[in-house]
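Quick log. Single chain, no ligands specified.
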Amino acid sequence: MSNKRMTVKEMAKKYPNEWLFIVEPETREKTTHLISGIVKVHSTSREDVDKASRKFCKDAAIRFTGDYTSHRHKMTFSKPRDLK
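-> predicted structure:
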């Protein structure tokens, strides 16, 4: 997987109807509106993306690029875990 930062439009074009695990998400100030990020995992299965997210300890986002009206969440964020 590339470390290239992509916009949301670029992600949707490259990975249509897929779940994306996005690291280093850039969002609009004071919102969760995703602007860009680096796609680390993409899959038609949400489970694959969730599995990848469990191993990650920094800011990240999960997004579905298709018609999300039948899905519960369009995007979720995770914050770093306390690694004491």
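The chain has one domain: 5-78.
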